[in-house]
Amino acid sequence: PNPKPPPPPPPAPPSSPGAGPATLPKSIAGELLLLWSVSASGYRTLLGRSYHGHDWESPRLSQPLRWDCSQGWACEAALPAPDGGSLQFDLLKPAAATADARAARFLLQATFGPTRDTISALTAAGQPTTVQLSGWVSDQMALPPTLHRGYYRARTNQPLAQPTAGGDVFSPCEVGSRWTRHAFHREDVGKEVRVTNASNGGLRLELLAPTSMGFPAGTVTLTLTLIGSGSSAHQTWGLLERGQPYVICQVESFWRSGRGGVEVGRGVQVGRPNCSSASNMADPSPTNPAIRFGDGVAAPAWTFLDAQLHPIASVNDAALLGSSPGVSCSPASQFARSVGGQYYRHDRRMKLMRNTLAAPANVTAAAAEACPVVAKTFLNADSCQLRRSCVPPRYGSASRTLSPAVLRAWYALSHKHVYYITGLRVGEEQRNQPDICFTSSRWLKGGGGACVAPTPLDAATRESVVSALRTSPDQSNPYVRDVHITGECAAELDGVRIYGASVTVDGVCWTHTHDDNYNVYDLSYWTVAHPGNNFISPNPIQAFAEADDVNIRFRSDHGLDRWRVNKRNFGLVGRLGDAIDFAVLPVEVQTAEMASYFGAAPLPDDGEGFEACGSPGEEANTPANAHRYGFKVYDYFEDYYHTYRPVSTTRSYKSMVHNNIAIAAPDQLRQRMAFALSQIVVAAAGGDSDTERWLAYYDIFVRHAFGNYWDILKEVSYSPIMGDWLTYTNTRSRATSNKFPDENYARELMQLFSVGLWALNQDGTRELDARGQPIPAYDDLDIITFARAWTGFERQAARQNLEMTDGDDNSPNWIDPMLIRPHLRDALPKMDLHDGYIGDGVPLCADLPPRSFLRVGARFIRRAGLGKTIGADQTVIVLQPRPASSPLHAALCAPSAGRCTFPTTLQLATNLGCDGSECGLSHVDAVKLVDGGRVAWYEYIRVPCVKMAFYADGELLYSSYRVCASHAEVSAADGSQAPQTRQDTDELLRAVSPPPPSPSPHPPPPSSPPTPL
Description:
alpha+beta; six-stranded mixed sheet; five-stranded antiparallel sheet; 23 helices; about 20% helix; about 20% strand; globular
């Protein structure tokens, strides 16, 4: 049979249709039809459109036209009457696109912009086909994500004098440490420099100890460099008066000229006697000379030789250590001589540790840094690993007397600032002094015989003090003696006070002193955290060690409150003059170098190790990338580090990272998708100068760009950024706070992040009720009940290896997912959007079968200890299975080579038999697993279940307070055998929460069940 003739082409639309019912043909391939309402004044309003053969549609959300396209080739609608104007059509037929134009148009939508290379890749075989474009999309989706946080961390190389919670410091002997050829560094600002003539006609530059710290004038701490005669540096430094101290006011950085650091030949501003006015400044400013020794000037101590130093791209006069140095290097080395014979000075820079999900932190046994303690959460639980190397090394006993020489060794060998303190006053503020009568006190031994002017104490008090000094068991210390006064004693009598009193005992003068005088402390942390560092130059804490002094003297103009409040930041090592065992010293001063100095041998590690859990994008910094972005360490140093910032201000780092990735990252489709998601689930940074935490939040969308939107909402909901932005962090239940929970997030989660204001049809139009009115997606009652679901959220504890947003070790943790405090969370039933209960369809906790912890699906998560398992403030049921006979012990042990491996998580694949005491338990909270001398703790995560708010067998029970409960619930809670399951559970459930009819069907469940709220 002959084929049917093709249908006639649809008629062309009228150029100016009239109001009322109208049949409008659809567009054909390559066409765009637009229907406009044009007012008398010429204002155009778009009423409808049809493109590339698709149905007519209305772009207006309010009062849209209703189109009936059942005819196939045309659509019908009732066209409105124009407001004094007319209805008009536009027909647009674009010219045929070239291959390059089509590729560019596609890339403009799928990336942050086409390039010649990306266009060429798509048009190599001519016009891009659907198969080619689909392949490009698949290839893009297969690329690993470029995380913004990781990109940022890899490109920061922040100057840092001492390790902090934010980051460690590259040791001089560590591959990647940074070295510079110029003589003066940022830490020299505020120091005094003196110019003297060298024997060969050159100049010698010497750094002096600051007299403001009590050092004698002219005390040389370091011969910094030798300047050869005839050089440009000689011409400028030669103008200064010989032998006179000049204060270093500024070490000029060349970021001002757009190049990024300090270099040889830049200016060094010096002044005399200070930097307070321009008239004090040397003019012209001398230049920063290259380091040079020889011709009678020896290189300083701790210089290591033949260093393998490699230049840093785009950074002048700077190099990185490329291979491990020889024995001539120590952690206190300040200078190095390269293989080529050039001298360099160590430039102390921050070291960040890699701690990603794929590679949780790991350190070598000899490393000084500690692994970051990251909370185990839904985000990282499956990737945590045991790291024996993260446990600090243990040392055997070895004793030395804490002499000044030993304290100097800590700085010389390990760059640790270990000092003994003097100058703390007594009697100044009695409210801050203990009553030394009838309690311990410290007395300072004089060195010149009897007291010249003993304090006229009353006879009884004097006798008690003398007796205490004679009979004290503390007789060996050559400087001080701690005593406990007994007998009659008066703190003050007739205007004479015992505080600061002097008495002669057996020809020796003893003076009461502050209880902390002559204590030895590790003040390395205070070299960075001391608030005065930003106002006093040079660094007032470092100055003592640089002058070879180990006695830090408390300033007379400081109140004792400063000491009492801040001494908690210092590690107590002991008392000067006491013998100390290296094995009991604080971990921070137990360095490998000092262990060798003491003669303390490392002990084998028989522990189970440290469980390292990673964090997305927590990359190490790469020194070869130079210093592209600043990293907040201490707010005290913002001005101090200003000249070392790589670019303008910290507020631009976030956008700079984003723009660099948008331009150059290979995973363009993912980045474009992440940007779109970030415009929906918004948290505003505003003028916030923090960087890392905002990039970590943005990475949620990068990682989940091609994933499940439910996963995005879950991670956003646990984000401390969102908890702070929408104010539900630290919100508590009404039962514990006597206030209604914050409703902010409950509202915005629905209105902005998910369902929106109105129930919608599948085509995106609003769903209407029987009266033709839009149906709200939720109401105020929904907001009130959902607000109770967002109670109990708190930030995780502060930790290491993060940008320090608050300028101290307790900076809030803005990175890790928040935790939920069960006792602060609303425990009452919560209804869903369809007037059912969130717990509908979930089994009752009382109906779970006995010993559910031994059944298929039972989950166990390894924890650091019992306190980390459930919470130290709660009673828990702990099971310790027998190693030899318990199937549960065998499953959690997962032995390998005769030793438990302690998996980080475990879900039972089969039912296990009970063993011993396990058979008498219905429920457990924690499992203590013992393998020889090793112990591991596991938290049991039971299947999601519901506790009823009302009970058919409920009665008032008494413990520490009165509560309505059922015996089945109580039995399950205390771990004993629960009674038989009630037969009327289903009927009771239906009686309590019958779901009423809903105008909308229930949404389909997510691909994986959400964690119960």
